[in-house]
Amino acid sequence: RKEVEQDPGPFNVPEGATVAFNCTYSNSASQSFFWYRQDCRKEPKLLMSVYSSGNEDGRFTAQLNRASQYISLLIRDSKLSDSATYLCVVNGLGGYQKVTFGTGTKLQVIP
Amino acid sequence: DVKVTQSSRYLVKRTGEKVFLECVQDMDHENMFWYRQDPGLGLRLIYFSYDVKMKEKGDIPEGYSVSREKKERFSLILESASTNQTSMYLCASTQGAEDIQYFGAGTRLSVL
C-alpha cells in the first residue's frame, strides 16, 4: 500500500459545482497534513493546512479523519481558475523530516 | 515573502556530463530539500539538509549528491548525468520540522 494515496482524476466539473477529493495515508502516527495546489508546469504552492478540527478558507474546506486515516478537500462554487492539480502532503511518517506527497488529483473546471 | 530561487528554469545536458543545480532561499530556513517530479510518480525526495554541511538521503538518492556549504544555498549534483535523470527538479525550504514547504520554480532538466 502506498504511504499516501490520491485518485489521480481528472475530475471534470462544471463551473459552480461542488467537488471533493480524498487522500488516504497509511501511517497512523502521521503528524501534520496539508493541501498544495500545482498549476501546469509550475511549482506546488500551499493551499491550506489541515487541522484536526477542520478548517475553512473561503470556498475551500479541509477535514482530517484520523480514525479512517484520510484527509479531504471540498471546493464549493468551482471557478475556472480552480483548475489545477491538488497535492496531499503528510508529514512525520518516520525519520527526521519525513514528508510524503501524494501524486495529486487533477481538477478541470469546465465553462 | 519567502523566496526560493533555482538557478535555471531549463537545462539540456548530454549523457555523462556533470550537472549542478543550485537553490538559494532568503528566509534563513534551517531545512532544504531536493525533489524530482515525474508524471504518475509525484514528488520524490532525493536529499534533504537540516543544517549547514548536514545532509540526509531521501527516497531516491542514487546517482545524486548534494552540498550545503552555506545556510541559504543547497546544491544538487549529478556526477554523470543519465537519460533516466530527465525530470523536473524542485527545491524547497522550511523553517521547522513540520512547517510549510516553500518551493522554487523548478528546473526542467533534459539529458540527451
Structure commentary:
The complex is a heterodimer of chains A (111) and B (112). Chain A has no helices and eleven strands. The model of chain A has no long low-confidence stretch (mean pLDDT 91). Chain A starts with a strand and ends with a strand. In chain A, 0% of the residues lie in helices and 53% in strands. Chain A has 111 residues and is mainly β. Chain A has strands at residues 4-6, 11-14, 19-25, 32-38, 45-50, 55-57, 60-65, 70-75, 84-91, 99-101, 105-110. In chain A, a hairpin with a 4-residue loop joins strand 7 (60-65) and strand 8 (70-75). In chain A, strands 2, 4, 5, 9, 10 and 11 form a six-stranded mixed beta sheet that branches. Chain A has a five-stranded antiparallel beta sheet with strand order 1-3-8-7-6, with no helix packed on it. Chain B is mainly β. Chain B has strands at residues 4-6, 10-13, 19-25, 31-38, 42-49, 56-57, 65-70, 73-78, 87-94, 102-103, 107-111. In chain B, the strands form two sheets. In chain B, strands 2, 4, 5, 6, 9, 10 and 11 form a seven-stranded mixed beta sheet that branches. In chain B, a hairpin with a 3-residue loop joins strand 4 (31-38) and strand 5 (42-49). Chain B starts with a strand and ends with a strand. The model of chain B has no long low-confidence stretch (mean pLDDT 93). At the A-B interface, strand 5 and strand 9 of A face strand 4 and strand 5 of B.
Biggest interface and residues each: A-B, 21 and 21 residues
Taking Cα atoms only, what radius of gyration of chain A do you get, to the nearest Å?
Answer: 14 Å
User: Which spans of chain B have pLDDT < 50 for at least 5 consecutive residues?
Assistant: none
Shape of chain A: globular
- Estimated structural class of chain A: mainly beta
Q: State mean pLDDT of chain B (0 to 100 scale).
A: 93
| Total of DSSP H or I helical runs spanning 4+ residues of chain B | 0
Strand coverage percent of chain A = over 45%
Low-confidence stretches of chain A: none
What is the H/E order of chain A?
A: EEEEEEEEEEE
Q: Helix and strand string of chain B, N-terminal first?
A: EEEEEEEEEEE
Describe the oligomeric state of these chains in a short phrase: heterodimer
Task: Give the structural class of chain B.
Answer: mainly beta
The N- and C-terminal alpha carbons of chain B lie at a distance of: 37 Å
How much helix, percentage-wise, in residues of chain B?
Answer: under 10%
Shape designation of chain B: globular
Q: Report the biggest beta sheet of chain A as strand number plus sense, adding barrel if it closes.
A: 6 strands, mixed
